[in-house]
Amino acid sequence: MKSIVTSMIVAAGLMVAGSAMAADMPAVAKKNNCTACHAIDKKVVGPAWKAVADKYKGDAAAWDKVATKIKKGGAGAWGSMPMPANPKVSDADMAEIIGFIKGL
Fold it and tell me: What CATH number is attached to the domain comprising 46?
């Protein structure tokens, strides 16, 4: 009985943590329509931002490539679905979005 209660508490904690993570999406990501294709912790159309952070962790040069991919679009890094170009994302918004992803 004690293990069942403990399991339920852990499961509830994980659900709350997942909900909190989803609520932390930066406003600039919503403003620039990133949320149409990306979520923090699950694949939507594009990869989860957590997966991007994990893939490029420790590779400082990769973040310039991510910025270029956001601005110019591209395909191949995460499968066959191309990322559309987003040339209207300001440099300030780009820095905030990439900073957020890096921090995951």
Answer: 1.10.760.10
